């Protein structure tokens, strides 16, 4: 049985990594053709292009397509086994269908753990290296200005800025409000604020402060003062794409901080956190479906099985996108939105296993 297990594992993983390698080459060729003008203009060293950019670029795309190519690999090589009557021979030798699934599950578990490690630990680090290269040699795509930003920077303290310029690290029409259980304590309004990177303080200019006390309201004004706030310029430019630079622990801590601030992007970050566990698990679900579909010898051969399998795989991806939209813009909890495709297609996989030829 060890020979059979090793045979299936070698076929499974060999097909997967061969397909992923071909995909990586194709992606790199298209990316080079897209960025060739920037490379010629900025003239980055060849070593930086290879080792700082593309060496860190490949893990992200390998992980992005890992579930799809796991499914395709299972469909492809299992269909070949069925077409060559190898599965019939395996079952006729006394090996049960359930026992034959063991090397498939071992391989899919290995790929799921690989995807989990890439998503939560490797890709955040490689993405930081790639970002440094992009900042230095490629044109930045990051927004320079943000508008109408409102957040809670500490319990009971809310900050608002009408417009913030990331390039100059300055904001316009800034206000800071403090509350307690009885209502508002104070409100600070200013026309302009600017970050001082040397002192780590904010310069508040042309300000008015209203302090509400039991004896009445006290209004003070001034031209400029420096202050410490639980706020940095990067906090005004929070984007869900920034999650790629965080490992799982950093993302979890970031979500806790964003909950306190009342971030409008909180739901998207929560979806990203749950995806980092659910997406690797999808590898196992799709493997079960793939084995069930392709273990039967059909008249259409490998092409028919691949067509049906790819249709199911894209249906899975589409369903995950739909449930994600419901979580982002509706009331569906993020954990349900991310895991419900695995649950439904897992039931489909169990049904297909029951009706598969044994």
From TrEMBL:
UniProt entry keywords in alphabetical sequence: Cell membrane, Membrane, Transmembrane, Transmembrane helix
Topology in the lipid bilayer: Multi-pass membrane protein
GO biological process terms held by the UniProt record: lipopolysaccharide transport
Pfam families linked to this entry: LptF_LptG
Keyword Membrane (UniProt): yes
Keyword Nucleotide-binding: no
InterPro entries the record matches: LptG/LptF_permease
Localization annotation: Cell membrane
Transmembrane segments: 12-33, 53-77, 104-123, 277-294, 306-329, 335-353
GO CC terms in record: ATP-binding cassette (ABC) transporter complex
Taxonomy, superkingdom: Bacteria
PANTHER family hit by this protein: PERMEASE, YJGP_YJGQ FAMILY, SLR0882 PROTEIN-RELATED
Name of the molecule in the record: Lipopolysaccharide export LptBFGC system, permease protein LptF
Organism: Lentimicrobium saccharophilum
């Amino acid at each position: 049985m060890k020979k059979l297990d090793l045979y299936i594992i070698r076929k499974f993983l060999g097909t997967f990594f061969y397909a992923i390698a071909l995909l990586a080459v194709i992606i790199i060729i298209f990316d080079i053709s897209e960025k060739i003008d920037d490379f010629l203009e900025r003239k980055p060293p060849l070593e930086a292009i290879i080792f700082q950019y593309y060496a860190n670029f490949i893990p992200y795309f390998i992980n992005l397509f890992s579930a799809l190519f796991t499914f395709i690999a299972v469909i492809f090589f299992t269909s070949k086994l069925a077409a060559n009557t190898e599965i019939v021979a395996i079952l006729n030798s006394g090996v049960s269908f359930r026992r034959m699934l063991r090397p498939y599950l071992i391989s899919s578990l290995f790929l799921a753990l690989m995807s989990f490690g890439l998503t939560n630990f490797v890709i955040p680090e490689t993405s930081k290296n790639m970002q440094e290269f992009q900042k230095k040699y490629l044109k930045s795509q990051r927004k320079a200005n943000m508008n109408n930003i409102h957040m809670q920077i500490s319990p009971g303290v809310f900050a608002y800025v009408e417009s913030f310029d990331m390039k100059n690290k300055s904001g316009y029409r800034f206000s800071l409000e403090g509350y307690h259980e009885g209502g508002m304590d104070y409100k600070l309004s200013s026309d302009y604020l600017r970050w001082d990177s040397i002192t780590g303080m904010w310069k508040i200019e042309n300000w008015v402060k209203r302090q509400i006390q039991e004896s009445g309201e006290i209004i003070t004004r001034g031209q400029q003062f420096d202050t410490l706030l639980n706020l940095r310029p990067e906090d005004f430019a929070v984007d869900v794409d920034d999650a790629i630079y965080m490992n799982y622990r950093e993302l979890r801590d970031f979500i806790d901080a964003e909950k306190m601030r009342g971030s409008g992007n909180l739901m998207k970050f929560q979806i990203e956190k749950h995806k980092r566990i659910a997406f690797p698990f999808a590898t196992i679900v799709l493997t079960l479906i793939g084995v069930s579909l392709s273990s039967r010898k059909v008249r259409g051969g490998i092409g028919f099985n691949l067509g049906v399998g790819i249709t199911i795989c894209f249906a899975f991806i589409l369903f995950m996108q739909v449930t994600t939209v419901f979580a982002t813009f509706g009331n569906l909890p993020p954990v349900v939105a991310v895991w419900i495709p695995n649950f439904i297609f897992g039931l489909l996989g169990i049904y297909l296993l029951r009706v598969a030829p044994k």
